[in-house]
Amino acid sequence: MKQILMAIGCLLYVGSAAAASEGEYMAKVSDCVACHTAEGGQPMAGGKKFPTPVGDIYATNITPDKTSGIGNYSYDDFEKAVRQGIAKDGHALYPAMPYPSYAKMTDKDIHALYDYFMHEVPASAAKNKESDIPWLLSARWPLHVWNWLFVDEVQAAKPVTHVDKNDALLARGAYLVEGPGHCGACHTPRGVTMQEKAYDASSDIYLSGATIDGWYAPSLRNISMSQDELKDLLRMGRSQHNAISGPMSEVITQSTQYLTDNDMDAISFYLLSFNHKVAAAAAATPVAADGSLTYKPTDGKTLYSMYCSTCHGDDGKGKDFTVPTLVNNALVTAKDPSSLISVISQGAETPQTHGNISFKMPAYKNVMSKEEMNNVVNYVRGSWGNNAENNTGK
Ligand code: HEC
Ligand code: HEC
Ligand code: HEC
């Protein structure tokens, strides 16, 4: 009998290891386990300590145990805690719980998370620890004020609207980084009351670097690596030229290593998009008082890996039936490069025909300077065996 049970156990184990549920995946992307697990403790059973300037607080047990955990939370209770920072009994949660970021999560993702917590996370009876904050300071009502002052604007699951909706990859990247990924919790500077100074890319402060528990989480607005290197870093904690240490290691082991290929593309694409915003701003005023060029345009190869390789591939070959190859492509190698320039500048779209969906290429006219556009044009005209002559950009 015991053996049969063990055999069934193994089968179940193999089954669950094979396919993570949607909710389990979202829990990884949101890294709930990082905070809700004590060192050596049962996952999600709480107890991890968060030092604050006024005393220590402890993350709570969020397993489905009905007395110690959140087993009695309805979906609405859960949604309120995760997106609005309000516990079932109505008290405001300390902002160590990154609900201002989770506020951006879609209903669908919150539902998936709820199902995962109620049905897949093993219950634990571990009791919650009281905070060490003196009782007067621990009164939670000031947190409602905090919410009111700083967080209300980003609440109500605002869809991410400040990015070009047409660019699905960029939108997905923004959603993951600004929402569930809560990367700003460490990489965005905090103000006097510990609120993050910005929660999305519409502000220049967002992800501009911050010190946290003796570690500096650097600015993610001018990452100087190729998209492939960045992906390696978030997948493995190391890349050809870089390696990760400190609190970011945990983010990688518990969260970003599990990203699907598409989500990894989206996050890296979104993060590197900050570079061209900086570049575009610089391009607007490229000449110093003495007439020298203060802004050095990015070279074609780097631009290609930032903006094009996700879809067209490092080898320029694209993807069968979705993204065209640029190798030995007539439009690319044409004597007159006008079409090539127009495609990059204005974007393009495959026609939608019966039974075939249409694929879009984004427009780059607002993200690259003229010189940069020219650099990338010359890069694709001169790579992978394409032998077209350089365009002078005149
Ligand atoms: C950066 C750390 C951090 C992360 C990440 C985090 N939490 Fe929390 N969470 C906390 C802390 C700390 C508390 C307790 C706050 C308090 O007591 O005021 C908390 C409280 C909660 C509560 C209220 C529980 C109760 O006992 O009433 C819920 C529910 C919750 N978290 C769910 C989640 C879920 C789901 C995720 C992932 C989507 C998550 N948390 C990710 C730190 C975190
Ligand atoms: C718990 C705090 C924390 C969170 C959350 C966090 N980071 Fe980090 N991150 C750091 C620290 C600290 C470093 C610096 C350590 C190092 O580079 O070795 C860092 C470094 C990085 C680097 C390397 C930067 C460079 O130029 O070398 C990247 C890229 C990065 N983080 C991306 C992210 C992304 C994407 C997210 C959200 C999914 C995220 N981080 C969430 C703390 C954090
Ligand atoms: C989000 C995916 C995506 C990105 C990023 C992307 N493209 Fe495209 N590209 C496409 C798709 C899809 C098409 C096909 C559009 C069509 O059929 O009109 C295309 C078409 C092209 C074409 C026309 C090829 C032909 O034979 O008609 C060129 C040239 C091109 N892209 C170059 C680039 C360059 C250079 C970059 C970077 C600056 C880039 N693309 C970025 C998806 C992308």
Summed up:
Heme c 2 binds at residues 183, 186-187. This protein is mainly alpha-helical.
Structural commentary:
This is Putative diheme cytochrome c553. InterPro entries: Cyt_c-like_dom, Cyt_c-like_dom_sf, Cytochrome_c-type_DH, Membr-bd_ADH_cyt_c. Keywords: Cell membrane, Heme, Iron, Membrane, Metal-binding, Repeat, Signal. Its cofactor is heme c. One of its GO terms (cellular component) is plasma membrane. It is a single chain. The chain is mainly alpha-helical. It has three domains: 18-158, no CATH class; 166-290, no CATH class; 297-381, Cytochrome Bc1 Complex, Chain D, domain 2 (Orthogonal Bundle). Helix content is 42%, strand content 5%. It is built from 17 helices and six strands. The protein has helices at residues 2-18, 22-30, 32-35, 75-84, 99-102, 107-119, 135-138, 141-151, 168-178, 184-187, 227-236, 247-254, 261-284, 300-312, 330-333, 338-346, 370-381, and strands at residues 49-52, 55-58, 210-212, 215-217, 348-349, 360-361. The strands form three sheets. Strands 1-2 form a two-stranded antiparallel sheet. It has a two-stranded antiparallel ribbon with strand order 3-4. Helix 2 (22-30) crosses helix 6, helix 11 (227-236) crosses helix 13 and helix 14 packs across helix 17 (370-381). The protein is elongated and about 75 Å long. The termini are far apart. Bound molecules: heme C (HEC) (3 copies). One heme C binds at residues 177, 181, 183, 185-187, 212, 215, 217-218, 220, 223, 230, 233, 242, 244-248, 251, 256, 267.
